[in-house]
Amino acid sequence: MTDQPKTETRQRKLVGEVVSNKMAKTIVVRVSRRGRHPRYEKVITKYKKFYAHDENQVAGLGDRVCIVESRPLSKLKRWRLAAVVEKAASPEKVAV
């Protein structure tokens, strides 16, 4: 057996906007990415939703948050909240 140090895996980090916080200890984060259309060359924005674990329920609707990859926590949750980057100005006027 060789005595090689264990290599650390880099956790993926994403920044997105909270679109739902109605579940207990779970938030839904919409992450956007921009790129050019392969044929028409127009810049388009694609969105993907991630379910993230929010233990202390600190993230509110419309907040920009940073999430990190983790072990599977439930059927859909594979991410957890790392930090709230920016609080929303007013949660009532957030467009989804």
Overview of this protein structure:
With 96 residues, this protein is an all-beta fold. The protein is 0% helix and 49% strand. The chain has one domain (13-89): OB fold (Dihydrolipoamide Acetyltransferase, E2P). Strands 1-2-3-5-4 form a five-stranded mixed beta barrel.
Class by alpha and beta content = mainly beta
Low-confidence stretches: none
Order of helices and strands: EEEEE
CATH superfamily: Nucleic acid-binding proteins
Distance between the termini: 54 Å
What is the global morphology?
Answer: flat
Question: What would CATH call the architecture?
Answer: Beta Barrel
Beta-strand level of the residues, as a percent range? Answer: over 45%
Helix tally?
A: 0
List the defining traits of the structure above.
single chain, 96 residues, mainly beta, five-stranded mixed beta barrel, 5 strands, 0% helix
SSE arrangement:
Layout: E1 13-23, E2 26-36, E3 43-53, E4 64-69, E5 79-86
Parallel strand pairs: 3-5
Antiparallel strand pairs: 1-2, 1-4, 2-3, 4-5
Can you give me a brief rundown of this structure?
With 96 residues, the protein is mainly beta. It has strands at 13-23, 26-36, 43-53, 64-69, 79-86. It has a 5-stranded mixed β-barrel with strand order 1-2-3-5-4.
